[in-house]
């Protein structure tokens, strides 16, 4: 009997039919109450987006685990910046483009608070908290004194109203604040002029929204479903657990605090009798009896003392916290130790396996979201603006458009073994030196220029080092051997034999 035949049954009094045998599709006793609505993700975001966004922002501000996870997410996604490496073949033009870009990055922020790579970190945090961030490319006047008359302005998700879903005057559809044409292309964004939650920005009565052309706006978000038009907070799957765990921790802390306030309870034979340790001045009720460490108090006849023995949470508190935070970490897609800072139960193998999987996920976001949605469009607009303003002497901006975006380097778990593996891969032709250098977060051409300058400086000054940047052979990890005074043909290897290996010979 085939697999398909196993799922067939003959309906009573009718032709053969196919019955669903997937457990998740059954409506038996266990799943009778599970009837989720079949809604599109855009409908879910439009209806619950504002509340989800407000809760997400509060959680990242008030919950330590959420705040730590947000910083870890941004630090691993962009680090010190995803940087361009121009692929222009002509070296002089490539150097001039790279130098102008580097100088412009300090002027990129329209608010003047950080540079272009700091803006990348802010976008990454917004992706974690709000699921999306808007970047408006603002042209500037020549008299503003910028190297390239262009700056970037970040807009939060609240600036684009979720509830603005209507038909525009020109017949286009507006969905969640985004205007689409007849074939689904984005034409404009209808932003609020002011942030709805900023009580410090109360100006004159002005229209609620303003239309901004789509070519001036970058919408940075990670689409998780086909046709998704707005972002979903990265922290959303873990929000409920983090909120309830925070409440549980607060309740447990209050319980401990309250229990610690009561040392004991005294039973008196009569209300007017003084308590042990109570003086005559205390009889007005202004003071309580006190116990000093190590005090042995003799009680009066008929008095009894019962010491407080509050119920303890027992040994399950730590295990419960660990399992809950492990579930939170899995929901966030972050390693447990990055969320909690707890590495007590980790070892080298578990950390390495965890980081390898995490880096694959981060690599998807770096190339599919940050580089594709943010870096490349800005590079193209920046080149066009630089050519039009005369900052770059290029006839056609398309000549300088080829570029490779280099993500920040990953710190090695075992530096020696990782570097040795990279050297072996280069020697075997599995990878190129360019790829190895770019994996460290640097531009190979910049590294080569620095190495050439180091070699020239060493030669001009008559210096000699054990490992020179100009050597063609790999540097040795062992100290350089001294020549054998009794043998002018080789070097002392330490075991009485002479070595003529050219890789260990000294100049």
From TrEMBL:
Domain of life: Bacteria
GO molecular function: structural molecule activity
Region Disordered, residue ranges: 464-507
GO biological process, one term: virion assembly
InterPro entries given in the database record: Phage_lambda_portal
Protein name per UniProt: Phage portal protein, lambda family
């Amino acid at each position: 009997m085939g697999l398909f035949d196993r799922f067939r049954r003959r309906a009573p009094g009718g032709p053969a039919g196919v019955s669903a045998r997937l457990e998740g599709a059954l409506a038996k006793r266990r799943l009778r109450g599970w009837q989720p609505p079949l809604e599109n993700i855009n409908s879910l975001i439009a209806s619950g987006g504002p509340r989800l966004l407000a809760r997400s922002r509060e959680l990242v501000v008030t919950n330590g685990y959420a705040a730590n996870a947000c910083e870890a997410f941004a630090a691993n996604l962009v680090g010190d910046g995803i940087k361009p490496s121009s692929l222009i073949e002509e070296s002089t033009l490539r150097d001039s483009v790279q130098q102008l870009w580097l100088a412009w990055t300090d002027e990129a922020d329209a608010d003047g608070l950080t540079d272009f790579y700091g803006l990348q970190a802010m976008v990454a945090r917004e992706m974690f908290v709000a699921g999306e961030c808007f970047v408006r490319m603002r042209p500037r006047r020549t008299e503003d004194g910028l190297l390239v008359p262009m700056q970037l302005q970040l807009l939060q998700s609240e600036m684009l109203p979720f509830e603005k879903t209507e038909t525009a005057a020109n017949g286009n559809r507006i969905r969640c604040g985004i205007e689409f044409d007849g074939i689904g292309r984005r034409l404009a964004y209808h932003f609020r002029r002011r942030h709805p939650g900023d009580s410090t920005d109360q100006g004159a009565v002005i229209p609620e929204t303003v239309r901004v052309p789509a070519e001036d706006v970058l919408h940075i978000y990670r689409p998780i479903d086909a046709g998704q038009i707005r972002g979903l907070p990265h922290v959303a799957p873990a929000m409920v657990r983090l909120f309830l765990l925070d409440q549980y921790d607060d309740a447990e802390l209050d319980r401990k605090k309250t229990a610690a306030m009561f040392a004991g309870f005294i039973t008196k034979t009569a209300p007017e009798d003084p308590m042990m340790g109570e003086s005559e001045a205390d009889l007005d009720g202004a003071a309580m009896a006190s116990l000093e460490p190590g005090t042995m108090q003799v009680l009066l006849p008929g008095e009894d003392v019962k010491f407080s023995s509050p119920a303890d949470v027992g040994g399950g508190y730590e295990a419960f916290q660990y399992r809950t935070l492990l579930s939170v970490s899995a929901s966030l897609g972050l390693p447990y130790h990055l969320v909690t800072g707890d590495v007590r139960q980790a070892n080298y193998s578990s950390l390495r396996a965890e980081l390898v999987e995490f880096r694959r996920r981060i690599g998807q976001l770096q190339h599919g979201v940050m580089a594709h949605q943010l870096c490349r469009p800005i590079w193209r607009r920046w080149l066009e603006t630089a050519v039009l303003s005369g900052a770059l002497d290029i006839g056609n901006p398309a000549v300088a458009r080829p570029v490779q975006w280099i993500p920040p380097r990953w710190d090695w778990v075992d530096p020696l073994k990782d570097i040795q593996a990279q050297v072996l891969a280069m020697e075997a032709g599995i990878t190129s030196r360019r790829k190895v250098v770019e994996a460290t977060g640097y531009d190979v051409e910049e590294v080569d220029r620095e190495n050439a300058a180091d070699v020239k400086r060493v030669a001009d000054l008559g210096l000699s080092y054990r490992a020179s940047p100009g050597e063609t052979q790999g540097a040795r990890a062992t100290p350089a051997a001294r020549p054998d005074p009794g043998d002018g043909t080789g070097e002392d290897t330490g075991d009485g034999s002479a070595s003529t290996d050219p890789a260990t010979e000294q100049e």
